[in-house]
From TrEMBL:
Family to which this protein belongs: Belongs to the glycosyl hydrolase 1 family.
Alphabetical UniProt keywords: Glycosidase, Hydrolase
Protein name: 6-phospho-beta-glucosidase
A Pfam family recorded for this sequence: Glyco_hydro_1
Organism field: Corticicoccus populi
Keyword Hydrolase: yes
InterPro entries per UniProt: GH, GH_1_N_CS, Glyco_hydro_1, Glyco_hydro_1_AS
The UniProt record lists the keyword Hydrolase: yes
Amino acid sequence: MTENKQFPEGFLWGGATAANQIEGAYKADGKGLTNVDLMPTGSDRITFAKGNINSLDLQDKYMYPSHEAIDFYHTYKEDIKLFAEMGFKVFRMSISWARIFPNGDDSEPNEKGLQFYDDVFDELKKYDIEPLVSIAHFDVPVELIKNYDGWKNRKLIDFFEKYSITLFERYKDKVKYWITFNEINMLLHLSFMGAGITINENEDRNSVLYNAAHHQLVASAKAVKAMKEIIPDGQIGCMLAAGMFYPYTPAPDDIFKAMDKDRESYFFIDVQARGEYPGYAKRFLKENNITLDITEDDKKVLKENTVDFISYSYYSSRTTSADPEVLKDMTAGNVFGSIKNPYTEVSEWGWTIDPKGFRITTNQLWDRYQKPLFVVENGLGAVDTVNPDGSIDDDYRIDYLNQHLHELREAIEDGCEVIGYTSWGPIDLVSASTGEMKKRYGFIYVDKDNEGNGTLKRSKKKSFDWYKNVIATNGGSIKS
């Protein structure tokens, strides 16, 4: 029995955010535009995210939620104080590349941008909260897209290395935990959001995306190398948008299809954790006539600079089949296509809810890599209703998180080494996939609607005190 069993001593509890979903102040203090600054709210957002964008300029007909977001740029002290009240040990955040290098290829960094993050880190230190920093969280300066075609161009490797070194040198005494690219495998599904990539009519999609992926993998390895030289006692990891695929039936073809779909994502982490392209990836590249822009120096850099830990997001499992007829019955909402699983529920946005899948996925990652794991995103997007007295009873969120944390604890009992957990969106923020505010994840409510109306006032939900108790008891309050 694991009832009332605590998590490992020193477990890092906290919450996770991204610069483009919370900061706002999109032009403040010299910041340049990023790819996500061009992504509107509404039905066109996913079209843009997938790279079907015909303009790299802002358009009057759209509302861009990242421009104000929840204004963390000006409210970070208030928000961090609330995180500290919950007892956070760690706060996962990202740095906006265009806040540091507005054009991406500038000769010198923007001091005001650097100082902003200095101030955030100092505020976190005041409460003994450890920052966990993503160097790139769906964040590409627009000028790099206009002038270099984003990550299609291997010149971005050098720009990213310079950016990373700038961060390591500036914050070496303030940040010990780093992640290179957020959900690096999302590049294959949301190419503009993930890597600032648009696919032209005359281009082979797979060739473009896998070469861009290679450039990011080499850039990640160079960042690992730089961090280890500049911050010897630091830790740097990679990040996967995780969630294993189930076969729809026990038919061997369905089982192989599920394995193949898992490998589509694991390929990125195989390279970052093991230092070379796996055999199945080489076969895929060969059979699809994809020639990588790979050099002998690339191979050496990848081999010699593997990550310290594997971080991952988990929201849902997926189900697939080798039968084209079965594939017609797909769930809505999630970026990763999935057949509707009759044994699981779905959220208001059509995402599969599968706590047991969290345990299975965690075990898969541990068995595959044997490196420390860090859960850096997990949460439920839902519509919250404010009661007349201002309270918010989000028992559905508490239930979701309790079930998932119970399964994570079971995975740790299985022998998986998990060093921390940061719930996604400890404070309401802009949804990456939809651009909405009504798809809320937080323990802290932010008064703002999808049209941008609201006071931005912060208030605690019922889940605030629940999570505070989870942290205070080191998971002992989680119910089986």
